[in-house]
Amino acid sequence: MSEEDKVEQPIIIKKIKKGGGHHGGAWKVAYADFVTAMMAFFLLLWLLNVSTDEQKNAISNYFDPTHPQVSSSESGAGGVLGGLSVAPKGAMATNVQPITSPQPSGSAINNKSSKKSNIEKAKEELRKEENKRMAKAAEALKKAIEADKELNALKDQFLVDMTPEGLRIQIIDKDGNPMFASGSARMFQKTQKLLEKIGNIIKDQPNELSIRGHTDSVPYGTGAAYTNWELSADRANSSRRVLINAGLPNERVNNVAGKADTELLFPDEPTRSGNRRISITLLKEELTNPDFEKKAEAAAIKSETKPEKETDTTVDPDLLSPPDSSFLPKMGTFKRTPGKIEFP
Q1: Taking a C-beta distance cutoff of 8 angstroms, is the pair 255, 210 a contact?
Q2: Which positions ≥6 away from 124 have C-beta within 8 Å?
Q3: CB atoms near residue 33 (< 10 Å)
Q4: What is the 3-state secondary structure (H, E, C) of the chain?
Q5: Which pLDDT tens digit goes with each residue over 76-118?
Q6: Among 155, 167, 172, 258, which has the minimal tally of Cβ within 10 Å of its Cβ?
Q7: Is it the case that residue 192 has pLDDT exceeding 60?
Q8: Phi/psi class of residue 264: alpha, beta or left (left: φ > 0; alpha: ψ in -120 to 50)?
């Protein structure tokens, strides 16, 4: 064999590329999955938006294995959340209200609006009845004081008015005729008798009470550990004890507060004796009863089955004004408290 035959021939490797110019179609499958997921997500948002609170709560309970209705019964498959059975005893199955409901029609929307309007009317009727009841309590208090010779001498220190919080009864000091010993929470016998009279009359009222003590702006000596804050709080609490002993249920007391000189009756005369007072407020039920909304709903349903009748719910303003207010400043009345209860 010649040398030429021994020369190695070059090796040629041919690479074949598979697929099109866009690297295959796998990306289309991934994109389709993404679009499907987004569509499902927006469908979920839409369903949440049109679902009522009751329906959302039912769905939440359906997936809660600790919920009493779920844990107390087995589903159609024999286990918790194992699927619904034909009978209404499956996992959270109900024949009262389905979890999903069709889009409300025009009549359904009108019915809902009418129901809301009826509830608002029921609330207003409850407020009027409460105002009338409070006015009668104020009238009974004034008549009881006028009928008592000893208490009648204090009638110009016994004041009643209606505030956004409710019916407020106030016992105030007068020059030469204080309700408590100076700088002390020890009340005089006349004060105790007056509070007992108040307690005997308002104990049958359903409203909760707010009891607040007020002082003038005369401070204690420099470095004193006992201040007008403690004094006003102690006087309010002392008044609470007398009311409880007079038969007022303890659970009717909503709060007892000492306001010191932060709410003066005579702002232009901060040291005047009239600034020292005890206020007892029969709080409106709407402010203290968490079931007031349900009570109004029940009243609205009841009123739908009865013919409407007009009732006289007018409150005589004379019942809520003090018998003798000649010693008050020309501003005429107390500083009105805000519409919500103020807690210290």
Answers
A1: yes
A2: none
A3: 10
A4: CCCCCCCCCCCCCCCCCCCCCCCCCHHHHHHHHHHHHHHHHHHHHHHHHHCCHHHHHHHHHHCCCCCHHHHCCCCCCCCCCCCCCCCCCCCCCCCCCCCCCCCCCHHHHHHHHHHHHHHHHHHHHHHHHHHHHHHHHHHHHHHHHHHCHHHHCCHHHEEEEEECCEEEEEEECECCECCECCCCCCECHHHHHHHHHHHHHHCCCCCCEEEEEECCCCCCCCCCCCCHHHHHHHHHHHHHHHHHHCCCCHHHEEEEEECCCCCCCCCCCCCCHHHCEEEEEEECHHHHCCCHHHHHHHHHHHHHCCCCCCCCCCCCHHHHCCCCCCCCCCCCCCCCCCCCCCCC
A5: 445 544 554 444 444 444 444 544 555 555 555 556 677 788 8
A6: 155
A7: yes
A8: beta
Q: Rounded to 10 degrees, what is the CA torsion of 198, 200, 203, 208?
A: 20
Length of the chain: 344
Bridge partner residues of 277 (DSSP): 172, 214
Neighbours of 256 (CB within 10 A): 18
Identify any residues that bridge with 161 across adjacent strands, giving them in sequence order: 168
Give me 308's structure tokens: 């409407």
The alpha carbon torsion through 30, 32, 35, 40 (nearest 10 deg) reads: -100
- Name the least confident of 127-131, 183-187, 315-319: 315-319
For 111-320, which CATH class? alpha beta
- Whether the per-residue pLDDT at 198 is higher than 90: the answer is yes
Please say whether the dihedral angle defined by the alpha carbons of residues 237, 169, 334 and 133, taken in this order, is positive or negative: positive
pLDDT in tens, 260-299: 999 999 999 999 999 999 999 999 999 998 888 888 888 8
Annotated domain spans of the chain: 111-320
CA distance 130 to 298: 17
Neighbours of 286 (CB within 10 A): 15
